[in-house]
Design goal:
The protein has 333 residues and is mostly helical. The protein has one domain (51-329). It contains 13 helices and no strands. It has helices at 5-15, 35-49, 52-69, 78-104, 131-160, 174-198, 214-221, 242-249, 262-274, 276-280, 291-299, 311-314, 325-329. Helix 5 runs antiparallel to helix 9 (262-274). The longest helix has 30 residues, at 131-160. The radius of gyration is 20 Å and the shape is globular. It starts with a helix and ends with a helix. It binds zinc ion (ZN) (2 copies).
Length: 333
């Protein structure tokens, strides 16, 4: 489940009839490598490169928005706060709308081409009769971005006012800086699995708080909103109840525990903002390729995590995606 430049290249390759459309960019012999060579490449290099778009949004924020806003951030003021919010909302609408247009748009040549065959569920979740569905997803996705922008403002204020330690020169601690940056991807997968599992019934969906099943309670009142998207699309990933957004974005709260660079926080935040597109766009490789999470939306009690860290195999909730009639028959909108 990736989303970014590699997917764009892959979709273009597929559209123009090239056979190696799912090969990672320049690594054209990837499919001929041994199992361990591919695993080493995936875990050491590809899992980071695949999030180049998330990192680019974070880097641009650091290089462009921070110099404008951070010197004023020691005090709350509408000017710098609105600049931070505007940058975040611009990122949301440019990236999400572009991916929506590319994969579903009537005027998109790619959406009308061979990519159609890669859709897990052939129904378009955003066709004319389902505008209320689109409106719900856009609304809750925007609430997610607003919450993460607010969290960004809070951290900027904490750092700028001296309430929280941090360091400004990334290269003053080169090994630590790079290590934390590379750890973000793995931390996000670990955090996502447990937060997500936490919000599904711990024992039975029939339970409530009186049975001590906090998961069943949270599922009923919060996470079920995310699961209204049985046939997910690009806007489904962040379409969550604000309480779930709160739990979800705690992945970027680690600067409360140790002094880090603002770019570490920004990468985790934009990773959480943008990466869900890949897991939810509803298409197989070379688009998002989120077959694993597609099954979670179709069947609920499986595939809570992301395959990079195999918690689902460990805890017996793994479900492999196989194109067969029994799977197709259960697909719903
Ligand atoms: Zn779920
Ligand atoms: Zn989902």
């Amino acid at each position: 489940m990736t989303f970014g430049i590699r997917n764009l290249v892959g979709i273009h390759r597929l559209h123009t009839g090239q056979e190696n459309y799912s090969t990672p960019l320049i690594f054209k012999t990837y499919s001929q490598w041994s199992y361990w060579q591919r695993k080493a490449f995936d875990y050491l290099i590809w899992c980071h490169v695949a999030h180049a778009l998330d990192f680019s949004a974070a880097l641009l924020c650091w290089l462009w928005i921070f110099p404008i806003t951070f010197p004023q951030a020691h005090e709350w003021h509408i000017k710098w706060v609105s600049q931070v919010f505007l940058y975040n909302l611009a990122c949301e609408f440019i990236i999400y709308s572009f991916w929506h247009w590319l994969t579903y748009g009537r005027t998109s040549p790619y959406a009308q081409g061979p990519l159609k065959e890669k859709k897990f569920n052939s129904t378009n979740p955003y066709d004319d009769k389902k505008q209320d569905h689109l409106l719900r997803e856009v609304t809750f996705t925007t609430l997610g971005w607003l919450q993460s922008a607010f969290v960004q403002c809070v951290f900027m204020w904490l750092w700028a006012s001296g309430r929280l330690p941090y360091y400004y020169d990334f290269w003053s601690r080169p090994f630590f800086s790079i290590f934390i940056l590379l750890a973000v991807t793995f931390w996000r997968e670990f955090h996502f699995y447990w937060i997500h599992r936490f919000m599904h019934p711990w024992w039975s969906v029939k339970n409530g708080l009186s049975q001590g099943d906090i998961g069943a309670f949270l599922y009923r009142h919060c996470h079920s909103l995310h699961h209204k998207s049985r046939n997910p699309g690009p806007w489904s990933g962040l379409s969550m109840h604000p309480v779930e957004h709160f739990f979800y974005y705690t992945c970027a709260y680690f600067p409360l525990l140790f002094a880090c660079h603002p770019l570490h926080f920004l990468y985790a935040k934009f990773h959480a903002d943008i990466a869900p597109i890949g897991g939810h766009d509803g298409f197989d490789d070379p688009a998002g390729g989120g077959d694993f999470h597609y099954l979670h939306h179709a069947f609920f009690e499986c595939n809570y995590g992301v395959p990079l860290i195999d918690f689902d195999r460990l805890f017996g909730t793994w479900k492999d995606y196989v194109r067969k009639p029994s799977v197709d028959a259960k697909r719903e909108d």
